[in-house]
Every structure is written in structure tokens, then in C-alpha cells.
Inverse folding.
């Protein structure tokens, strides 16, 4: 991935149960310091997504790394940035613990 | 592995996406485009730059499709149709150079 260039990535999610699941996801970036340079244009996160029983879907993320990443001396040794997602089951009336997100 | 639960001063602050969320492609309408894109990544050794035309094709597919959709649990019928991706000029999605190449190639045809 080239900083400044838009890029596409795919995740896959499966609901292995026999009931529909409504989930909501949040993400994490490591190394921590690279997270400020990670910009999502569009993804599947932060909104409720419904998966039917046994359903498997592709989940795209369209993003770019801020070009200033290449100028930051602290990032000089970073050649791998890992993006991960955690799905929570959305329950009616349940407040999700999404740190820092209003 | 859960989200970073440090007790130190640093904690990861998630930010929402600029253009919101992609509706799920429940019926795999754009799966063929996705497969072509992933095939390109496999062949190029995961070079994102090399596969930008196919990424663009995938997003175009999304913009052209309307599928039954709607937010669950809010009293809405699933017969409402939503685009798989809101229309956005491709130049604004970082594909300006690819569009310029295409329009330059046209007069020669």
C-alpha cells in the first residue's frame, strides 16, 4: 500500500448460528502510533449489520494511509500496519462500549 | 484479541469512516468484481497499486446496484432499496489518474 493512494481490503464474516445476528463492529490499528495516519473512507463498521443464519458476507474497507506517514521519522521503521475488527452483538437498548466514539 | 485495553495514558480512539458505512452485499451482487480484485492481489504479490483498476471496478459495481435493504429493527420493510454505495465521482475516491487515462485513450479508438 502506498501512502496517499486509496486502497481496498476485504474481510469475511459468517454467522454460524441458526438465528439472525445483528452486530456492530469497531476496529483497532497496530502499531498504535500508525493509527493516526489510517483513514477510512468507507467501511462496514460502526453501524448495525444484520447477518442471517449461516450467512457469510464480504466486508469491504476502503481506506488510505495519510501521505504524511512517509514524512514522520517515527514511522520510518514501520512497514506493517495491522487493521483488525471486533464484532459485538447489538442488543436492543444495550449501550455498546465504543471508546472515544460518540 | 480484544481492542487495546491499556491502563497507561494511551488508548486507541476509533474514528468513524469519512463516508459512512457500506450496506452489506447480502446477495453477492458484486462478488465477481471482488474475486477479480483478489485474484489481482494474489498475482501481484499483494501490490495494492497494481490492482487499483479492479478496486475501482468493484466500487463502480456497488454504485450501480440497488438491493433490498434497510436498517433492521426500525420498523422498515426490507423492500426498500438502497445502493450498495452512494454515488461519488471516481476522481474523489482517489482514481483521478485512472479516469484521465481512460479519457485520453478514447479519442484514439
Amino acid at each position: 500500500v502506498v501512502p496517499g493512494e486509496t486502497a481496498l481490503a476485504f474481510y469475511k464474516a459468517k454467522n454460524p448460528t441458526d438465528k439472525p445476528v445483528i452486530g456492530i463492529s469497531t476496529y483497532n490499528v497496530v502499531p498504535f502510533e500508525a493509527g493516526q495516519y489510517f483513514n477510512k473512507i468507507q467501511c462496514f463498521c460502526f453501524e448495525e449489520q444484520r447477518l442471517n443464519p449461516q450467512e457469510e458476507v464480504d466486508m469491504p474497507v476502503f481506506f488510505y494511509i495519510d501521505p504524511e506517514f512517509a514524512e514522520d521519522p517515527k514511522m520510518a521503521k514501520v512497514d506493517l500496519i495491522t487493521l483488525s475488527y471486533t464484532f459485538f452483538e447489538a442488543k436492543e437498548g444495550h449501550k455498546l462500549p465504543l471508546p472515544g466514539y460518540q | 484479541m480484544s481492542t487495546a485495553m491499556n491502563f497507561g495514558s494511551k488508548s486507541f480512539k476509533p474514528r468513524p469512516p469519512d463516508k459512512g458505512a457500506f450496506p452489506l452485499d447480502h446477495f453477492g451482487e458484486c462478488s465477481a468484481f471482488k474475486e477479480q480484485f483478489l485474484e489481482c492481489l494474489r498475482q501481484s504479490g499483494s501490490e495494492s497499486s497494481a490492482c487499483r483498476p479492479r478496486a475501482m471496478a468493484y466500487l463502480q459495481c456497488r454504485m450501480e446496484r440497488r438491493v433490498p435493504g434497510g436498517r433492521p429493527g426500525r420498523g422498515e420493510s426490507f423492500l426498500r432499496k438502497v445502493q450498495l454505495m452512494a454515488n461519488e465521482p471516481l476522481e474523489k475516491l482517489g482514481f483521478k489518474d485512472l479516469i484521465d487515462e481512460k479519457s485520453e485513450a478514447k479519442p484514439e479508438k
About this structure: The beta strands of chain A are 7-14, 21-30, 38-42, 49-51, 56-65, 82-89. Chain A has a mean pLDDT of 87. Chain A touches chain B at residues 1-2, 5-8, 10, 20, 22, 26-29, 32, 35, 39-52, 55, 57-60, 62, 64, 84, 86, 92, 98-101 (CB under 8 Å).
